[in-house]
Amino acid sequence: MNIDEGTREEGARVTEELKFVPKDRGWTWMCVLSGFLMNMLVVGVAVKSFGLLFVEIVEKFGSSSAATSWITSLSQCLALMLSPVASTLAAIYGTRRVVFIGGLLIPAGFILSIFAMSREFYYFSYGLFVGIGTTLAYSPSIILIGLYSDKRRSLANGLTVAGSSVGNFVFPPIIHWMLQNFGLQGTLLILAGLMLNICVCAALLRPLSFYTPKDKKAKNAEKATSCIAALRNYKFEWSLLRLPQFMVYALSLFFCFCGYPNLFIMLPPHCKNIGLSKEQAVFSVSVIGIFDLIGRMFFGWFSDLNLMNKGTVYSSSMVISGVACMITPLMTSYVAIYIKIMLFLLSYTGFLEDITGTWTLSFIVSGACILIGGLIPLIYMVKVFSDFQIQKFEKGKKNLLQSTHKLNMGDF
User: Fold this and answer.
1) CA distances (Å), 162 to each of 43, 168, 293, 386, in order?
2) Which residues, other chains included, contact 368 with Cβ-Cβ below 8 Å and sequence gap of 6+?
3) Hey, is 209 helix, strand or coil?
4) Which range, 36-50, 98-112, 232-246, has the best average confidence (pLDDT)?
5) Taking the mean position of all CA atoms in its chain, how far away is CA 197?
6) How far apart are CA 24 and CA 168, in angstroms?
7) Contact 304, 155 (CB under 8 A)
């Protein structure tokens, strides 16, 4: 059996299993709960709350913002770039196993970071271990939840990723309190123990084959084995890169994620630079979580209503976020920062802060990246619409000429 045949048969087997899966009910919502808790831990702590650890690492080692930014940059780079690998591993070995391994790697990264004697060690401990663990825990779970849902898929995905917003709201004050009482190393140890709960979340991810009748399982057992053998030699389907829609949104997300995660790193030191206290900086990060949660819940529900093209909703949100991020340097008061956050501030590097001495240029670059990412799908949709109108005009023109020709022939 070659790879293409194995891939097709594996797809047919999954399609067969989906026939028996209860969609939008029952265990679907347990999987959503698992994804919610996992996002609360993985994204809410390891990604969105890293800005608090960022300040502590800079103060402890006296390192530059640029060098320290590489810790989370490496982690997020690995988490995003290895997503196809994580998805493939989940298809071969099962979502539950892959997510469980991710739940072991992330706390391992936190524990190793306790023994860091230099900033560079964090590149290995936090950047490598947490980055790989994040992609193993995040990507497969999101895919499985999508397979468990149908008509309520947007709502299910919205509830799942809302966990990151709740974590973003709940954990910054807790982490700030732990840093004051236990220091950086003690905080990392406690967070490592907390992250082990990802393994519990993995146990809730019931495989699709659970619902397949026993007689069907017996018939599919031999096929599944041969399919997995073929998938072990699986190669990426490069034909995806020839799809305009895929490339448009891939390019859009590339620019968006060049700016989005950096807000959570830049905001705490930015608040410190403009004279706000540490407590106010921590609370500003928590406020992001509140409005982020409202936005995710609303757009998940709104998208299921099909009142507006989802691409338009996505692009509009990114454009607003990009503009809000770019005007952040103009906001030097506590209230102004909250207004910016309310405008769905979703935002590049400490390197710019080291050069300029402020975070102004960093916010502008991050906002510009998000803005460009939001405009790309809009430009593509305008092009598709204009091409359709041109084709419609040409077709009408051709029909008109044919009708005129027939009339002339009739007169003759």
Assistant:
1) 10, 10, 5, 36
2) 259, 322, 326
3) helix
4) 98-112
5) 20
6) 27
7) yes
Closest CA to 257 of 188, 321, 175: 321
Residue 58: predicted pLDDT: 82
Where do runs of H (alpha helix) occur along 305-333? 310-326
Other Cβ atoms closer than 10 A to 12: 13
- Summarised one tens digit per residue, pLDDT across range 163-199 is 887 888 888 889 989 999 999 999 999 999 999 999 9
Distance from C-alpha of 301 to C-alpha of 80, rounded to nearest angstrom: 26
Helix axes 310-326, 278-304, angle to 10 degrees: 160
Q: Which residue has the tokens 């979340």?
A: 201
Per DSSP (E only), the strands in 31-95 are: none
Contact 164, 44 (CB under 8 A): yes
| Residues 334/280, Cβ–Cβ less than 8 Å | yes
Cα radius of gyration rounded to whole Å, the chain? 25
Nearest to 320 by CA among 283, 373, 362: 373
For 282, phi then psi, to 5°, come to -65, -45
Q: 44: closest CA among 188, 195, 185, 181?
A: 195
Per-residue model confidence as pLDDT tens digits over 48-74:
778 788 878 888 888 777 777 788 778
Q: Which residues, at least 6 apart from 211, have a Cβ–Cβ distance to it below 8 Å?
A: 17, 20, 21, 22
As a whole number of Å, the end-to-end CA separation of the chain is: 67
The one-letter amino acid code at 346 reads: L
pTM, full prediction: 0.67
Contact, 209 vs 15, CB < 8 A?
no
Domains in the chain, ordered, with CATH?
21-211 (1.20.1250.20), 237-406 (1.20.1250)
Residue 14 amino acid letter = V
In single-letter form, the type of residue at position 213 comes to P
Q: Which residue in 203, 211, 175, 185 sits closest to 46, CA to CA?
A: 175
Give every CB contact of residue 5 below 8 A, 6+ residues apart in sequence. 230
- Count of C-beta atoms within a 10 Å radius of residue 169: 21
Q: With CA atoms as reference, report the closest residue to 229 among 334, 91, 124, 131.
A: 91
Burial of 225 (0-12, 13-18, 19+ CB in 10 A): exposed
Contact 294, 192 (CB under 8 A): no
Residues 6+ apart with CB under 8 A from 88: 231, 234
